[in-house]
Amino acid sequence: MKDFLPILKSLKSNYIAALLFITQVAITFTILVNAIFLALEKREVISRPSGLDEHNIFYVATNLPVKDAEKKALLEQDLLRLNAINGVTSAAVSTGLPLTGWGRLVEVATKPDTKYDTFSGYYGGDAQLVKSFGVELIAGRHFKKEEELTARVDGYKIASEAMVTKALAKSLFDESWEQIVGQTLYINNKPQRIVGVVKTLQSAWPSWVVVEHGVISAVKETDGIVNFVIRTESGVPTSVVDQTLSYLMETHGRKIDKVEMFTDVKARAYSAENAASKTLLGVIAGLLLVTTLGIYGQSRYGIVKRFKLIGIRRAMGASKGEIIRYFMLENVILTCLGVILGIISAIVLSVAFSNVFELGTVPMSYMIYGSVCTLLLGQVAVFYPAFRAAQLPPAVATRIV
Q1: Domain residue spans in the chain?
Q2: Biggest CA-to-CA distance, the chain
Q3: pLDDT tens digit string along 10-69?
Q4: Intra-chain end-to-end CA distance of the chain, in Å
Q5: Residue 251: which of 78, 387, 367 has the closest Cα?
Q6: What is the 3-state secondary structure (H, E, C) of the chain?
Q7: Are the CB atoms for 29 and 338 separated by under 8 Å?
Q8: Are 142 and 131 in contact (CB under 8 A)?
C-alpha cells in the first residue's frame, strides 16, 4: 500500500481525467445493473410454468352449428368422438384458454354479500378439463362426471363445486391454503364449494398481476365459440390434429375459428417479453464492450503520458511488477469511487422505474455482484497497458516526452 498516497497525489494533479473515468464507471454501472435486472426479470416471466402439459396440448376454437335446444347433445357427441381418437389422452371443452387473451375473470370472496377479496381467472368445462389441461392436483379431488352441468352462458352462476389454484388459495388463506378444500367461496357472489386445489394454472392474460389465480367449474357453456382442449400421448402428432378437424367438419355449418399448439400460444403470449429481453442482453453486451474499450483507452492514455515518470521509477530500482501494481491499484481506486457513485444512482433509477412502471427494485445482491464484475472488468482493461509500460527499458522511457 506504499503506492496509495502517491496515487492520490497524482490523481489530484490530474483530477479532470480522474473525474471522467469515475463518471464513466458510474454511468456504466447504473445502466448495467438495471439492464441486467430487467433482462433477468423478463426471462423469469417467460420461464414461469403455465401449469399445463405444454408440449402435448392443442386447442380448436369452433362453433356448434345447431339450434340452441340441440347444442348440448352435439357438444356431448363431439366430446365422445374426440376422446375416441387414437392418440388422444383426454379431450375437454373450456370457456377460455390460458395465455391467449380469451377468457373471463371473476371476483372471489370468502364471505357472502361482501366486497371481493381478490380477482381470478375463470374456466368452465366438463369433468375432464383438469385432466386435459394436464395440471397437477395437490389437494382435494377431481370433479365427478355427475357434477357436470351445462349452461348457455355464465356457467359460474349455476356451479355448485369448484377447483382453485394454489396461488389463489394462498392469497385467501395464507400458509393454511389447504384448508380451502371443503370451504365455500363466493364467485361473483355465487356460493361454490371448493373440492380441489391444482398446483398452477395461469389465466388468459400473461401480464395480469394475478395471472396465477384460477377458478375451474364443471359447467360447459354452449353459446358462441367453444374451445376443445385436446391432450395427446406424446407431442402433438399431425395425424391427431387432422383427425380432429376431419371429424369436426363432418357437421354441416361447422367453422374452425382457430387451431393452435399450446407451445405456439405461449411463445406468442410472451413474444414482447422475449424481444425486450434479447434487446436488453444486446445492450448489456454492447455496453460491456464499449466500457472495456473506454477504460482501456483512458488507462493507456494516462500511462503513455507518464512514460517519463515510469522510466525514472525504473531507474531508481522499481521492478516491472511494482509498475504494473501501481497502475492496477490506481484503477481499483478510481473504479471503487465510480462504483460507489454508480450504486447511489442505480438505486435512485431503480426506485424511479418501480414508481413509474410498477417494476420491482433491484436487489442488493445485484449491486454486490455488479461491483465485483466492474472491478474485474477494470483490472482486465488496464492490465495490458500497464504490462506494456513496465516492459520499457528505463533509458528509453526517460527519453519519451
Answers
A1: 4-47+272-399, 64-254
A2: 104
A3: 666 667 777 888 888 888 888 888 888 888 888 888 888 999 999 999 999 999 999 999
A4: 28
A5: 78
A6: CCCHHHHHHHHHHCHHHHHHHHHHHHHHHHHHHHHHHHHHHHHHHHHCCCCCCHHHEEEEEECCCCCHHHHHHHHHHHHHHHHCCCCEEEEEEECCCCCCCCCEEEEEECCCCCCCCEEEEEEEECCCHHHHHCCCEEEECCCCHHHCEEECCCHHHCCCEEEEEHHHHHHHHHHHHHHHCCCEEEECCEEEEEEEEECCCCCCCCCCCCCCCEEEECEEECCCCEEEEEEECCCCCHHHHHHHHHHHCCCCCCCEEEEEEHHHHHHHHCHHHHHHHHHHHHHHHHHHHHHHHHHHHHHHHHHHCCHHHHHHHHHCCCCHHHHHHHHHHHHHHHHHHHHHHHHHHHHHHHHHHHHHHCCCCCCHHHHHHHHHHHHHHHHHHHHHHHHHHHHCCHHHHHHCC
A7: yes
A8: yes
Q: What is the mean pLDDT of the chain?
A: 87
**pLDDT tens digit string along 350-374?**
888 777 766 677 888 888 888 888 8
CB 340 within 8 Å of CB 25: no
Q: Which of 160, 150, 156 is nearest to 221 (CA)?
A: 150
pLDDT digits (tens, 9 = 90+) for 68-126: 999 999 999 999 999 999 999 999 999 999 999 888 999 999 988 778 899 999 999 99
CA triple 46-235-254, angle to 5 deg: 95
Q: How many CB atoms lie within 10 A of CB 364?
A: 10
Could you identify the residue written with the cell 357434477?
Answer: 147
Cα–Cα distance for residue pair 149/129, rounded to 1 Å = 13
What is the per-residue pLDDT across 236-255, written as a single tens digit (0 to 9) for each? Answer: 888 999 999 999 999 999 99
Place of cell 395471472: 211
